Amino acid sequence: MTSPIQNFLESLHRSLQPVDHGRVASYIPELAKVDPAAFGIAIATIDGRVYEVGDSRQCFTIQSISKPLVYGVALEDQGLDRVRQAVGVEPSGEAFNSISLEPGTGRPMNPMINAGAIATSSLVRGATREARLARVLDAMSAYAGRALDIDEAVFESERATGHRNRAIGHMLRNYDIVTGDPEDALDLYFRQCSVRVDCRDLALMAATLANGGLHPSTGARAVRTEFVGPILSVMATCGVYDFTGEWVYRVGLPAKSGVGGGILAVLPGQLGIGVFSPALDERGNSVRGVRACEAISRDLGLHFLQPPRAAASTVRASYDLVDVRSKRQRSPAENAVLARDGVAARVYELQGDLRFSTIEPVLRDITEAEPPLAFAVLDFKRVSAVDPAATRMLAALVGEGAARGRHLVLTRVRRGELLAGLGTALDPRAATAVSFQPQLDLGIETCERGLLQRAGISSAGSAPAALAAHRWCQGASDEELALLDGLLRRVVVEPGTLIVQRGEPADALYLLLRGEASVVVPLPGGGSRRLATLTAGMGFGEVALLDGGVRTADVRADSPVECGVLAATDFARLETAYPALANRLLRNLLRGMAQTAMRLTAEVAALER
Predict the structure, then answer these.
(1) Which fold has domain 315-454?
(2) Residue 556: strand, helix, or coil
(3) What is the C-alpha to C-alpha distance for residues 604 and 609, in angstroms, rounded to an integer?
(4) Segments of the chain scoring below 50 in pLDDT
(5) With contact defined as beta carbons under 8 Å apart, do 188 and 165 qualify?
(6) Where, residue-wise, is CATH 3.30.750.24 in the chain?
(7) What is the rounded distance in angstroms from the CA atom of residue 335 to the CA atom of residue 459?
(8) Does 124 qualify as catalytic in the annotation?
(9) Which residue, 277, 306, 299, is CA-closest to 290?
(10) pLDDT at 27
(11) Are strands 262-267 and 255-257 parallel, antiparallel or unpaired?
(12) Please, what is the end-to-end C-alpha distance for the chain in angstroms?
């Protein structure tokens, strides 16, 4: 089943594919050969899931996107103080190839412009050019989660035409920012820019930074955690050069662009984005890439200055209907179906703020469940806010489910409150694939009813049950049934009427012969809570046969009800005159209590997981 997030990316890709503004970089001859129509997008989460579309596996050279990664290598090799002596962290507000040096010191303004990147490359440890290159390639490969190599043709083209960068390197040597042979630093810089990557690599590199330096899939450390903050800081303030202020305002993600057409963007603690489209604007940034990142940030609510309030986990509890059932008591046949098919319905008790990053794992679990889910319940009792991006993702989930026969049940939330925009975002053709229930228990019951209907079993509802079919009378002979029937007092009750009331003497046992009744208790703040719903063939009031006392709950008729009432005094006479029948009733009662206890134990175990 396709994820709503994948559908979003595919729609975004289609909408931006016709954009034909911009031109590929031509100052490096090899880059001019790239197809300007190429376009890929990828999003990687910090648990390793990658969503990708378009030319996401087409290789291109990383170019300036290497700068923050090599900056991290220099920080590890030399330490923060030594790197700060050579390179500043102030935005230059100028183009990527500007010569922005501090007056007097000659220190480059930041490591994202070429001057700063060349200075950074000179700080990579290694006795030889080969050793320093291996150090950088190993680090970049750890970020990508696979072995990377160099596009030799691009490298030779860069080296042959990089006269301005060569001049910058020698000027840095003049100021002793580069202390060795500047050609060594320049060789490494040209090579690091010529490393081959694809769009998926960029997304995983970004997700590695979002994950504190650990690759989401391999678990390998690409950079020490204490240096992730400095890397993301210079990306946020200097990553797209003289477009950085506009970028932060419109996109709000630490990012780095490259003239190869790539853009890498990071949402710390959550995800990474990679975009590839080689047609560039006048500042050297990918035209489609900028638009794609802006749309992703806007539509998925990713701006880093609008973070979600933290929650230990978005999913407080998750369980299927094999383990947890509604309060409606079921017949043995119904229970057998639910025990078999309950895996096709799953409950997610949510908490905290719902945004793209917090709802995405839930949507993924629903769409990728095996076996596929027929019903999913999202409980909103502990949800504090739902942003527009999460609302749109939920609407997309409903639409995808409608096409595949899955029903979404939303509990303890009203349409006009947290989900105010759902109606607008929802495709009217998918409206029947979602329903609202005021209580989680009723949502679970909705799923049970659907599973039973799929199995060809309709609820017994108010269908009458002969005394012989009553579960408390199982195994009784015709003679014993006749004796019991003679002791029963028949009671007929209209819907909404209390059959027994909390606090009354517990002096009789009730056999439900027709209709439905619910056991309810009042809540301190008003209203009531359902403890169980019973149908014909079930019963209540067992405590009357044990130690009497008073009723602890109300029992309300939900439909026209007929009961057979066995007074405790009549049961006492039955024990004396017909002990075999009395023992049979008691055994059946105990069997039912044991089954209830086992079910409750299984539910507690499921909720503790």
Answers:
(1) Transcription Regulator spoIIAA (3.30.750)
(2) strand
(3) 9
(4) none
(5) no
(6) 315-454
(7) 11
(8) no
(9) 277
(10) 87
(11) antiparallel
(12) 26
Set 51, 71, 143, 189: catalytic member: 189
Q: Which two tokens stand for residue 536?
A: 């014909």
Residue type, 291: R
Nearest alpha carbon to residue 272 among 218, 215, 225: 215
Catalytic option among 3, 56, 64, 331: 64
Best CA proximity match to 23, nearest among 42, 37, 39, 41: 37
Enumerate residues 6+ apart whose C-beta is below 8 A from 181: 173
Query: Could you tell me the two tokens for 379?
Result: 């409980």
d(CA 545, CA 455): 38
List where CATH 3.40.710.10 sits in the chain. 4-300
Task: Tell me the β-bridge partners of 266.
Answer: 272
In degrees, rounded to 5, the angle at the alpha carbon of residue 123 between the alpha carbons of residues 90 and 274 is: 65
Give me 282's structure tokens. Answer: 């006048």
- Residues 337 and 452: their CA atoms lie apart, in Å, by 7
Pairing of strands 516-522, 554-557: antiparallel
pLDDT of res. 542: 84
User: Does the active-site annotation cover 189?
Assistant: yes
Would you list the DSSP string of 338-387? HHHHGGGEEEEEEEEEE-HHHHHHHHHHHHT-SSPPSEEEEEEEEEEEE-
Q: Nearest 5°: CA angle at 520, between 555 and 466?
A: 40
Q: Are strands 40-45 and 50-54 parallel, antiparallel or unpaired?
A: antiparallel
Angle of the 228-238 helix axis to the 199-210 helix axis, nearest 10: 120
Q: Which tokens in the block code for residue 6?
A: 């994948």
467-608 CATH: 2.60.120.10
Check if 384 is active-site: no
Alpha-carbon span 488 to 498, nearest angstrom: 19
Confidence (pTM): 0.79
Exposed e or buried b per residue across 238-261, where buried means at least 16 C-beta atoms within 10 angstroms of its C-beta: bbbbbbbeebbeebbbbbbbbbbb
Q: Residue 53's pLDDT is what?
A: 98
Selecting among 241, 319, 348, 510, the annotated active-site residue is 241
Q: Pick the catalytic residue: 50, 67, 83, 154?
A: 67
pLDDT at 437: 94
Please state, in angstroms and rounded to a whole number, the distance separating the CA atoms of residues 580 and 180.
Answer: 103
Q: What confidence tens digit (pLDDT) does each residue in 549-573 have?
A: 888 899 999 999 999 999 999 998 8
Contacts of 235-240 with C-beta under 8 Å, sequence gap 24+, read 235/68, 235/112, 235/266, 236/304, 237/89, 237/90, 237/91, 237/110, 238/89, 238/91, 238/92, 238/109, 238/110, 238/111, 238/112, 238/113, 239/68, 239/112, 240/283, 240/285
Q: Are 165 and 97 in contact (CB under 8 A)?
A: yes
- Residue at 598: amino acid letter: M
pLDDT given for residue 349 in this prediction: 96
Residue corresponding to tokens 């990687």? 44
Whether 241 sits among the annotated catalytic residues: the reply is yes
Minimal CA–CA distance to 180: which of 122, 129, 101? Answer: 122
Residue 102, C-beta contacts closer than 8 angstroms, at least 6 positions apart: 88, 108, 109
Q: CB of 515 within 8 A of CB of 563?
A: no
Domain 4-300 matching CATH 3.40.710.10: the answer reads yes
Residue intervals in the chain for CATH 2.60.120.10? 467-608
d(CA 398, CA 157): 51
Is 98 tagged catalytic?
A: no
**Residue 182: what pLDDT?**
95
Please identify which of the residues 259, 275, 386, 520 carries the catalytic annotation.
259
